[in-house]
Automatic annotation (TrEMBL):
Membrane topology: Multi-pass membrane protein
Annotated transmembrane regions: 219-245, 272-294, 314-332, 389-408, 666-693, 714-746, 758-778
Annotated keywords: Cell membrane, Membrane, Transmembrane, Transmembrane helix
Span of domain MacB-like periplasmic core: 452-637
Protein name: FtsX-like permease family protein
Length: 796
């Protein structure tokens, strides 16, 4: 049978084109995503210059401070006793202090200040002027001023005017403003490190402050690779099933001539292996071409650091190559078993009419996939996680596709019911052809189901979650204005005080921080985002989803938590602040978990700032009788030139959600874009295969008296009907998937809302319809160039 398989592939290559194209593109997708993901794991993070490039010995609080493996997000400084011991080492030891400092209107990237005595160890090279020796002097990086000029420097305390005594160039170190040692000690009493030329410390490391910006890239590429792999397996299996179904007459003849079921299966497996190996070779050749293009796009969209490059790596190509034969063999397995069960006596009859579309294995897989998807939706805590709703969508799509032969007939009757009221034979032919060939219809509708189902499910789930987050953000900020940073990492204390001094308003300054708490018997440390706020202002401006307790009772010894903490009012919890300091706080209120953002509140004393004591923003709410325009003018006058801007709250919310969701949206477009492009090609490929098998049917219509235009209308109607069936199936899948997200969000937030991205989903449906029409009508029109009698005698 192997020799027959080879002869069949060579002589009937047209019959294998559809499977070959699908498989080649699928392997190419796997290779591209594999190479990109491998590059993400081997590319160093977007390393920024270190702090101690030329320091032989550094004593600091820890290069990577952590609590039970969890990294801290704010510097805690060097213990005074450790600093004293380090200074006793001698060798010209100096104290280093790292704090927020920025030249307002400057052109450098400097956002830190340090004492001048650290300059030789960083190192910083003086290129003009002289070192700072007095309190009002500063040395600035190149681009922030020139010697003798005056600059406004913003620190955590507020703005001050300094005279530029010199200009430095950072040599392999982070740009910084350098102050006289006494001035640096006044601005930041905390000692961050002791640097010495003496023995006993730890050498400086240029990479100590490297940023790991590739985590999001890895997650995105991993998700995209998983979806692309699912789509490839799904489409290839569907294409192989259609190809085998179209060869039923040929297989039936083999059975009639004495071929055993095992021999038929072996022949089909051999054909699939040959096609799979050749397609895998070509697909692996596509990977090294497409992967660098994907890498450049990711860098261009700031989804990966500038250092990200995609070289050719062996193991992703080996995995992709193995995928080709494996997927082809899996794709032909079910079809070959069914073909092998044809009895010689009924072979020819079974080749002409479809019967027994559902096998026991197909029932088990289909029902199991749907049940698994529905079961996965029972976890409300994971409703907002891609780790839940993406697998749910894939399981439901796979299950509906496996059950399509039993779903399609009643669905086709429903969709084609309006055709039964129309006059003429064309509507009857379209309807009966669809109902009679349920397996063929299911196979051709499968790519539409995947395409529209993925688009509607994932985009719908993302839009619904984003809508819930926007609603939560509106409740958190029930103010009239928001004063946000403008060119600075945060708002200084002077800016906050000026805003509070504006008459006729209530203000709420928010400081982001991180708290760490233990779970599961103190074995697991969880990191929670939190906000430092004043309790009385919080109650006036924010509407919190309180489950128990009273947030107004928040004090320095207490905390407001979400249900995610699994704590009760009155219970004491031990937490670590962002700098690693530990404290015990009493729970005074429990909030709904929500979408996971801003559900924990502490007082400013417990909110160790992650940006050198700067506030993130200030909410401003008008008191009754206060004029809005007057307040806005006063706010703009108070904050002008201080690195702050006044924004209407609604505009700020829209911009904040747009900025925060940018990477998520672009990542989703990567995930969907590649998969949908493949699905679009699969739709065209499948319908071209189906059109080639319908040449004889179309010839019969022409001999029965139908004109060429009437036949083309029938072909177009059948193509649109297939798209309609696929869209209806996809609608059911997306309704279940998005419904699970909505139910989960209702439990987490107490709200019931659905967001449907009609425009992109409608665009995907329209694209499917256009592709289906082109892939069906154009081959049919080309086939009708021959005489109907000649076409009727054409062998399949």
């Amino acid at each position: 049978m192997l020799r027959i398989a080879l002869w069949t592939v060579r002589a009937r290559w047209v019959a294998f084109v559809g499977s070959f194209v699908s498989l080649t593109l699928g392997v190419g997708l796997v290779a591209t995503m594999g190479l990109a993901l491998a590059a993400a794991f081997h590319t160093p993070g977007a390393a920024r210059p270190g702090l101690y490039g030329a320091a032989p010995t550094v004593v600091r609080a820890g290069d990577v401070p952590n609590v039970k493996g969890r990294k801290l997000t704010a510097p805690r400084g060097l213990d005074p006793a450790a600093a004293a011991r380090a200074l006793a080492l001698g060798g010209g030891a100096v104290r280093d202090r790292v704090f927020y400092a920025q030249v307002l209107g400057g052109r450098s990237e400097a956002e830190i200040g340090r004492p001048w005595s650290i300059a030789p160890f960083a190192p910083y090279r003086l290129v003009a002027g002289k070192p700072p020796v007095r309190q009002g002097e500063v040395v600035v990086p190149v681009g922030d001023g020139r010697p003798g000029a005056t600059v406004r420097v913003m620190t955590a305390q507020g703005p001050s005017v300094y005279r530029v005594s010199g200009v430095v160039a950072a040599v392999g170190s982070r740009p910084a403003l350098l102050f006289a040692d006494t001035e640096a000690a006044r601005l930041s009493p905390r000692i961050d490190a002791v640097v010495s030329r003496g023995p006993g410390g730890k050498a400086g490391d240029m990479g100590a402050d490297a940023d790991t910006t590739l985590d999001g890239t890895k997650i995105m590429l991993g998700t995209a690779g998983g979806i692309c792999g699912f789509v490839a397996v799904f489409v290839v299996a569907s294409t192989f099933a259609l190809a085998v179904a179209q060869r039923r007459r040929e297989l039936a003849l083999l059975r009639a001539l004495g071929a055993t079921p095992r021999q038929v299966r072996r022949m089909l497996f051999a054909e699939a292996l040959v096609v799979g190996v050749i397609a895998a070779l070509l697909g692996c050749a596509l990977g090294p071409v497409c992967a660098p293009l994907l890498g450049d796009w990711l860098v261009g969209k700031n989804l990966a650091p500038a250092s990200y490059e995609v070289p050719v790596t062996v193991w992703p190509l080996l995995v992709a190559f193995g995928t080709g034969p494996a997927v082809s063999l899996l794709g032909v397995r079910t079809a070959s078993r069914r073909a092998g069960r044809i009895r010689p006596a009924e072979a020819l009859g079974d080749a002409a009419v479809e019967t027994g579309s559902m096998t026991p294995g197909r029932w088990v897989v289909g029902v199991g996939a749907v049940a698994s998807g529905l079961w996965m939706m029972n976890d409300p805590d994971g409703a907002t996680s891609r780790k839940q709703y993406i697998p749910v969508a894939m399981m439901l799509i796979a299950g509906f596709a496996m059950l399509a032969p039993i779903i399609v007939p009643p669905l086709a009757r429903l969709v084609t019911w309006p055709l039964s009221a129309l006059r003429g034979a064309g509507a009857m032919v379209v309807r009966e052809s669809t109902l009679t060939a349920a397996r063929r219809t299911a196979s051709t509708a499968a790519p539409v189901l995947v395409t529209v189902g993925l688009a509607a499910s994932l985009l719908g789930a993302t839009a619904t979650i984003d809508g819930a987050r926007r609603a939560e953000l509106r409740d958190q900020h029930r103010s009239d204005f928001v004063v946000a940073p403008d060119g600075t990492p945060g708002l200084s204390r002077a800016v906050v005080d000026k805003i509070r001094a504006v008459p006729g308003v209530d203000t709420l300054a928010r400081t982001s921080t991180t708290l760490l708490a233990t779970e599961e018997g103190d074995q697991v440390v969880i990191k929670y985002p939190a906000q430092g706020v004043t309790p009385e202002a919080l109650g006036k401006i924010a509407r919190l989803p309180v489950v128990a307790g009273d947030p107004a009772r928040l004090a320095d010894d207490s905390i407001v938590v979400s249900q995610e903490w699994r704590r009760k009012v009155g219970e004491r919890v031990e937490v670590w602040r962002a700098d690693g300091s530990k404290t015990a706080l009493r729970v005074v209120a429990v909030l709904r978990t929500g979408t996971g953002d801003n559900g924990v509140f502490v007082t400013p004393r417990n909110a160790v700032a992650e940006t050198s004591g700067l506030a993130d923003l200030v909410d401003v709410k008008l008191r009754p009788g206060t004029d809005r325009d007057t307040v806005r003018a006063a706010l703009e006058a108070a904050t002008g030139g201080l690195g702050a801007r006044v924004v209407a709250t609604g505009d700020w919310i829209a911009a904040a959600k747009s900025a925060s969701g940018r990477q998520s949206r672009l990542g989703m477009y990567v995930v969907l874009g590649v998969a949908l492009l493949y699905c679009a090609i699969a739709i065209a490929n499948t319908l071209v295969m189906a059109a080639a098998a319908r040449v004889r049917d179309q010839a019969v219509l022409r001999l029965a008296g139908a004109t060429r235009r009437q036949v083309l209308r029938v072909v177009a109607a059948e193509a649109l009907l297939v798209v309609a069936i696929g869209v209806v199936l996809a609608t059911q899948v997306s309704a279940l998937c998005v419904g699970g997200v909505v139910a989960g969000l209702a439990g987490l937030t107490g709200r019931f809302s659905v967001a449907v991205p009609w425009s992109p989903v409608g665009g995907v449906v329209a694209a499917c319809a256009v592709i289906a029409l082109a892939a069906s009508v154009l081959p049919a029109r080309a086939a009708m160039r021959a005489r109907a009698v000649d076409a009727l005698g054409t062998r399949e």
